[in-house]
Amino acid sequence: MALWNFERFEREIQKPEVANLYCIFGEETYLIEETVTKLVSKVLDGSPQDFNVDIFYAGESDVSSVKDAIEMLPMMAPKRFVILKSAESLKAKDLEELQNLVDNPIDSTVFVVVADKIDQRKKFFKAVDKNGVLVKLDRLPENQLPVWIQKITKKEGKSITEDAVLAIMQLVGSNLLDINNEIKKLSQFIGKRDSIEVGDVREIVSHSRMESVFGLTNAIGERDQAKALTYLAQLLDHNESEVGILALISRHIRILMMTKECQVQGMTRAQISTRVGVPSFFIQNYIDQALRWTESKLEETHEAILETDRALKSSPVSSHIWLENFILGTIR
User: How many domains does the structure of the chain reveal?
Assistant: First the structure.
């Protein structure tokens, strides 16, 4: 079967039948949880979940217990769910023990394997692909983030202004789990007010993280290598994802590229703000920084970001080394 993304999953979940076997994996934890929740709600709508959902964690749970749960019959429900999380921790003998259940899925159980990453070449995951569904949920591209920020805010019973959406993208990044956590805090902060505004975002988003994010992107925009390495270390000390940090850098460089192009065309500050899609109170910083860059240097840096992204996702070398090398090699 084809590798599904979230949009494909949402289309398929509208159909009457679901598969008996899923492997849901990727970097976007929030979307993974959304996918699992939608599956459970679809099948067990109105049926008791307490008796029909079992959650196990690879490395903590005995695989024989997982097998027993899969083979158990549902109680007052069409099917039961067995969810095995952290499947990247499964050892070869564990995969072998579960192999028969993915080769021959049990019709009365939906078996969901959840992982950060998988090796699709392994016999186990080839069988999942053949007999079930693989769903890969990576970080969303930036152009999809505003819609998701609106969706998450709506789930909290609030609305959000366009400037506040942009501020969240600027300060929080592209990790939907982080965005969800900040929107929950913002919803509590505004109380009975209906709409989250940009001032609320600037007030509530974690100040230590905000300072490190602003510090890193500004240091890169100002081509200050020493400061960039300092702020990178601070973000890593706060357990920020290397891929997420690179996404913040990539966004900053793309905005500088667009700003530079507008400057070359002789646009005014207001025109640049509109074209780039950055609120007026943020744009002056980009205008000042763009003057420090040539178009060719921005293109070179953009290519280095793409190379670093590929390295982060495929190399066994410690992830922070690639980010440090990117800053040492390009920000000077």
Answer: 2
